[in-house]
Amino acid sequence: GSPTLLKQASERIEQKNTSIDMTNGYVYILQDTKGGYYIGSTDNVDRRLKQHLTGHTHTTRRMLSLRLVFVQRYNSLKTARSIEARLKKLKRKDYVARIVSDGFIKISSP
Q: How far apart are CA 89 and CA 12, in angstroms?
């Protein structure tokens, strides 16, 4: 009957929403106790943070007591990766600190 159709439609919508969420990308910034920053991008911030904290990421292994200080969502991982690359090219700690204090990235998407 109709309850089954409603359930199937609901499941399809949930699957669609999940796939939409999977396309989001995030730029994130980690900071260590010495004030050093690490800029990264991912489609799953929780998973990526766990990877950093458990030593799976070569670049952040040397950094002590990492903490997540910033996250910004983008409509796609491709856009997030592009923004990440542009930020890394700047190589300016003062600009990264400003992003963290302002709470957003001012660089526009390509």
A: 42
Please identify every stretch of the chain with a pLDDT value under 50, giving residue numbers as ranges.
16-21
CA dist 45 and 41 (Å) reads 8
C-alpha closest to that of 106 among 76, 70, 77: 70
108 DSSP 8-state letter: P
Structural element, H or E, at residue 39:
strand 37-42
Q: Are 70 and 29 in contact (CB under 8 A)?
A: yes
Burial of 22 (0-12, 13-18, 19+ CB in 10 A): exposed
Single pTM value for the model: 0.75
d(CA 78, CA 89): 17
The H-assigned helical ranges of 24-104 are 45-53, 77-90, 93-102
* Amino acid letter, 105: I
* 21 membership: H or E segment, kind and range: helix 2-23
Please report where in the chains the tokens 């999940």 appear, as a residue.
18
